Amino acid sequence: MKVLVPVKRVIDYNVKVRVKADQTGVDLANVKMSMNPFDEIAVEEAVRMKEAGTATEVVAVSMGPEQSQETLRTALAMGADRAVHVVHDGELEPLAVAKMLKALVGEESPDIVILGKQAIDDDANQTGQMLAGLLGWAQGTFVSKVELADGGIKATREVDGGLETVALKTPTILTVDLRLNEPRYASLPNIMKARKKEIAKKTPDELGVDTAPRLSTLKVTEPPKRQGGIKVGSIEELVDKLHDDAGVI
Predict the structure, then answer these.
(1) Which end is more exposed in the chain, N or C (fewer Cβ atoms within 10 Å of the end residue's Cβ)?
(2) What is the DSSP string of 86-134?
(3) Cα–Cα distance between 83 and 67 in angstroms, integer?
(4) What is the pLDDT of residue 91?
(5) How far apart are CA 226 and CA 63, in angstroms?
(6) Secondary structure letter of residue 222 according to DSSP
């Protein structure tokens, strides 16, 4: 079973994001970048499948500028076998990413594509679903547990009312949630080995995908600062404040 794992380079989750003065986006100058945490969980799950003998090969793929190779080398250090970098400078929207992934699926013929349910920079939560639609494959979203069953995949996913378990036929798309696993730290020897591995390069043109943006950002602003809380003396006072001051009941 072959597994394809798309990974995205994003601002590290520990970094306090700054909005540009002209409100056209966030400031990326001298900011620490790392692999999207949800994608890191996807890599971990794919590597565990290989270690368990259920996956034969794990291929990581990333799209973006030259620096995206750092993200791919992290995936290689975690245990991915190969990496593919689609070189592109500038913004990539989920539809363009999904189309490029579809083209790569045509070349690699994986049985499963595992990716994070969303990226922490745009929180779009669209790529996996779009890829499943373009391929016509089954999909399991927000997956918190993966099991092989009856020649397919049994995926447990989180829904508003609790947990839902779905049976998926392969080939399939899985978008994973935080509770699926805890990603490993790559060992120093594996990090050194990953530096020497060759990363295959492609371009959007080679994949036959037009990356021209379909969306335009009007402006980016910081969220309103949180107000300090207050203590109330009784439930009646709490209800009054929620009704009279906050207007939420």
Answers:
(1) C
(2) EE--S---HHHHHHHHHHHHHHH--SEEEEES--TTT----HHHHHHHH
(3) 14
(4) 87
(5) 35
(6) P
Q: What is the dihedral of CA 147, 150, 156, 157, to 10 degrees?
A: 120
Q: Which residues of 159-190 are buried (b: 16+ CB within 10 A; e: fewer)?
A: eeeeeeeeebeebbbbbbbeebbebeebeeee
Owner of token pair 């791919």: 72
CB distance 80 to 183 below 8 Å: no
**For residue 224, what pLDDT is reported?**
84
Q: pLDDT band for position 247 (50/70/90)?
A: confident
**Confidence (pLDDT) at 150:** 80
C-alpha distances out from residue 199 to 28, 59, 75, Å: 25, 11, 11
What local confidence, expressed as pLDDT, does residue 229 receive?
85
Q: Any bridge partners for residue 113, and if so which?
A: 4, 173
Q: What pTM did the predictor assign?
A: 0.88
SS3 category, 195: helix
Residue 29 has a pLDDT of: 86
Residue 96 near residue 121 (C-beta atoms within 8 A): no
Q: Do the Cβ atoms of 118 and 38 come closer than 8 Å?
A: yes
